[in-house]
Amino acid sequence: MPRFRHLLMLTLSAAILHLPSLQAAEELPDAIKKIEAKGAKIVGQFDAPDGLRGYAAQYQNRGMALYLTPDGKHVLLGNLFDADGNDLSSEPLQKLVYAPMSKEVLAKMEASSWIADGNKDAPRIVYMFSDPNCPYCNMFWEQARPWVKAGKVQLRHIMVGIIREDSPGKSAALLAAKDPQKALQDHEGAGKASQLKALKEVPPAIQAKLAANMQLMEELELSATPAIFYVDDKGELQQQQGAPSPDKLVKILGPK
């Protein structure tokens, strides 16, 4: 299972990131300023051994650890390991770069137009970008039934339309339904026999919701469904692309 931080390194759009820089009062050393001038955003400073000064930076949506040498004239880039092979850069980057990124992504998904599947008081929330014509979305829906029915997980389907020509209309039909949760249940429960019809005329309010979901998917540079997001046991946001294998279900949904 790839850590979400690795996904962020490659795909998270700068448009949705607003990480705070070091306060202006904290004057950066000239050598670090030169790195900043090349496009890196310095977001925090952390302790480093042997006279080094550590700086956490974001460059092209990627977390970087910078180490200023004691003379203040040279900057080392990369992960620093101690004599026991422990990565001394991982924790600072997680705290200063990836945790704020993950928090903002979760907030974006929570504010999106999703359809709930399961108990609102479920202890675990799992988001998924879902297309009504996606067979793997339906597969994950089936896989998740034991957890959802037990009240342990609520799936939140962020509806998009990317697979077929009628996908946007079908997603709009679900979002516009009198009871979206029941409409989604009927659609997913029927599988290939679903009678869901695409809306021919989509109300402006529903179109705006669908467009916002699609924009969020594009900002995250996701290209397929289901794209599943969950918080692991360490409190870190993780991502699963496609229906997970049985051994990964417990990581996503928790113990049965």
TrEMBL record:
Residues spanning the signal sequence: 1-24
Gene3D superfamilies, sorted: Disulphide bond isomerase, DsbC/G, N-terminal (3.10.450.70), Glutaredoxin (3.40.30.10)
Compartments where found: Periplasm
Thioredoxin-like fold domain boundaries: 121-253
Record keyword Cell membrane present: no
Region (Disordered): 237-256
Principal subcellular localisation of the protein: periplasm
The UniProt record lists the keyword Disulfide bond: yes
Protein family according to the UniProt entry: Belongs to the thioredoxin family. DsbC subfamily.
NCBIfam families (alphabetical): PRK11657.1
Identification of the protein by name: Thiol:disulfide interchange protein
